[in-house]
Amino acid sequence: MAITTLSSRELNQDIGRAKKAALQGPVVITDRGRPAYVLLTFAQYQRLTGQQRSLAEALAMPGLSDIPLEPPRVGISSRIPDLS
């Protein structure tokens, strides 16, 4: 696991570089030469905090029922194939 260090200025100038580096390991972001933040991929964050959720747990999250969801009805009809 590689640890990359970037200044806040470098991060602002090239966020793509920071995102690519985060795929290899943590990215330490400095502010005035001192470590201030750490950029991780979401998967790394979940492993670190032990917050792996199942689909059922994610769907049961509070507030999810407040999201309106009315999928359109799909009409399925059978047709007689023309075999002539």
Explain the overall architecture.
This protein is an alpha+beta fold and 84 residues long. It has helices spanning 8-13, 15-24, 42-49, 55-59; strands at residues 4-7, 27-31, 34-39. It has a domain at 1-33. It has 4 helices and 3 strands, in the order βααββαα. It has a 3-stranded mixed β-sheet with strand order 1-2-3. β2 (27-31) and β3 form a beta hairpin. The protein starts with a strand and ends in a 25-residue tail after the last helix. 2% of the residues are buried. Antitoxin component of a type II toxin-antitoxin (TA) system. This is Antitoxin.
Residue fraction in strands:
15-25%
How many helices in DSSP terms? Answer: 4
| Largest sheet strand order | 1-2-3
Quaternary status: single chain
Extended strand count: 3
- Summing up helix and strand content along with how strands pair, one would put the structural category as alpha+beta
